[in-house]
Amino acid sequence: MNRGGQGLRALAIVISLALIVGAFYNFSLRMRTKPAPLLRLDTPQAATSPGDEGLEFSAPGLDGKDINLSSYRGHPVIVDFWATWCGPCRKQIPELVALYKKYNKSRGLVIIGVSCDLIQGDGVKAVAPFVEEFRMNYPIALADERLTDSMGIEAIPTTLFIGRDGKLVSRIVGAGQAGEITDSAKQLLDGVKGPVAPSKPDDINGHVVNISVVK
Does residue 175 share a domain with residue 80? Predict the structure, then answer.
């Protein structure tokens, strides 16, 4: 082998040794330092939660004007999520109508019915005749999936009882026994705290429609 070939061979050996030494050095450095995780799961806690600031939503009403929950701060508010095709919803609407008639002017009770007919059903054209048939005397808002998701609505009817400060006081999922909504409304008016956690749909079978049906 001539000197040129020997020189190239020696250079290749030197480069190979340098690469090996470099790789070993980097490996040793990684072993001495804490390895970074392959996946970092951050769950930052918000400084304030919706429960701290009070519930809020905005949705169009039957008259085309937006209904904003925050505009009723200072009033006790009942928000009822329902649909014209929901049998259990129909069951409790007369009770809500009676409550609004009795306590709206005398004690400032606000009731907002939030229809889910835009999500499934015949849309707004089905809502207006239904409201007239059931003589619903309180404001009606029209929900979309964004609204139900943001409010954590998993089944209808779901009725929220909201204090004068805008915070959730109690919640009923499904059409319960006659008078249950009235009792919760009286607790709301009197400032009595009730259970916030909703019942599971399995516990009230036949009295609730899973929201997945809506979607």
Answer: yes
